[in-house]
């Protein structure tokens, strides 16, 4: 029986702190726009990474499977457009290297931009810095700023990753976040072969809790998937040392019942709700994605393996229509293992994955109140140790939940 923790490769990730002299401009890294003006452009950030690296295989997989497509959604500017003091412009002559010693590149290219680990000089803390190229579309830029301000306000809530600060250079933003030390949910799924039911419950509960914080603040995430869920070691928790953290809020949008239909959809094929393919976005679209994750946790496979490819992110396009019709016709085999042994989990998953929004659970609160999740509230009495003999069988991952081939992001995710 495997342990709850995802495989640790922290030792293999050790890298020397690197800082280039401010008057030396090294070779530009892929996916980052170089700049010669002062203010800390990414071109003087890191030396070219040594090759090969211990993470070369995983990075190669990300590059091969993760080719995002950024498209505009026409989302409206949030009404709460005030953003707290998380934005700070770098002064003339001030370099991003004055604030951080950069260590390791986690991700490069696509809608996610470039993501690196770093050590913050002011307090010597380990952080993650996401480098985001500025958008030429002023409306999209203002929207992104407002969304980041709203997410920052949620930084004190459990299970939502805090945005510590955002430094602004001439051509790029540097989004600074705490470093999660427990790995991705994707890595957990890809390495574990058996998962106790109590772990599936806890992970589902904490994802719902995180998304609930967004929904209470009229935000919809739109790209919930295992790659956007991290574990953070938290020794203060009684149930488990790993706490779920929801990350990557570039695709968030403000939502209200009067939000108009979108001309483009956002998210990752395989996790996009059917109504979103037709331009209808709501909190229930996030609940659908959580249902997909629960299905994977319980079975080890995607509910619809063949439906993870789209040509573009246009509502009503042939690809979107084809996927919508396929989802409508798809019949999941709820009588196959392991579902008969876990009827309550099956009921929750079925209600999260209901094709019709009228039949799907309508709120996070409704899902958290489901019988399968009873007793999972943080205020509940301490649970006994996880019973490792009560495991879900048939969790054979065998690469069947490989990272999806593309992600559709709107203009604010560029």
TrEMBL record:
Recorded hits in SUPFAM superfamilies, A to Z, give: Protein kinase-like (PK-like)
| Compositionally biased residues, Low complexity | 23-35
UniProt feature, compositional bias: Polar residues:
1-17
Q: Give the Pfam families listed for this entry.
A: Pkinase
Q: Highest taxon of the source? A: Eukaryota
Q: Which residues form the Protein kinase domain?
A: 101-373
What segment(s) does the record annotate as region Disordered? 1-63
One GO molecular function term of this record is: protein kinase activity
The name of this protein is Protein kinase domain-containing protein
